[in-house]
Amino acid sequence: MRTLRIPLRPLRLKNMITKIQNFEIDLSKPIDISIPITNDEQNPIAWYQNAPEIKPVVMGDWVGKVSEGQSSTNFNNLFFNPHAHGTHTECLGHITKEFYSINQCLKQFFFWATLISVQPEKVGADLVISKTQIEKELNFFQHSEIKPEAIVIRTLPNDVSKKSLKYSNTNPPFLSEEAALFLRESGIQHLLIDLPSVDQEKDGGKLVAHKAFWNVKDVNHLNEDARLNCTITEMIFVPNEVSDGNYMLNLQIASFENDASPSKPVLYAIQ
Prior knowledge:
By secondary structure, the protein is mainly β. The chain has a domain at 88-269: Glucose Oxidase, domain 1 (3-Layer(bba) Sandwich). The protein has four helices and 17 strands. The strands form five sheets. A seven-stranded mixed beta barrel has the order 8-15-14-12-9-16-17. β1 and β2 form a beta hairpin. The mean pLDDT is 94.
């Protein structure tokens, strides 16, 4: 019996164009704006945590690492905090007494998005992103056929060091309550930003921007009109060569039943 051997060629996504409404999107040209979780000093860290750990399982003399010569597989345990160790997406369960999971709140993954760049304004000892700044940029990129469901905020200056910053006790820039309220009233469902939080690092637990965006009026008894399907994604990084403007966003999360998950937001240019 003869066996027919057919050589397999690697799949190449070349000119993989899809059309949505009157726009074309090339799915072979993703723009990844996530920061990965690593176990070295290059990993960004916030909220007074240590670096994440990625270590092989050890059981007696057996080590789950192929290079150690005892295992046929690499078999690692991971220890990390999604809020502290890289790009993550969170739901309102991050601030409520009752448990809500990002895996249950986020059920759609493609959205029209507008990328804007803003330089936080000096307000006393703080650096604040204001409603006026966001409104001006959103109006500039307003398109008659695109109503953005997501906003991606790149803060200036935009140095690549953001990908490895140690944010604890540095009072990073943050979003004003008025800016977060404006985004909610503008119909923005998904807020992405290159900071460890939309709120001030040490605000006494007020979390005014989180609450304004999610429309959470009482964390102990969630109001019926709270925005369960809306998300905040923090600690992204948008390279300087990516221009401000309108994009298609693919917001990918891992399937954790938790208030937040590591995530991979990906932008696609609109043609």
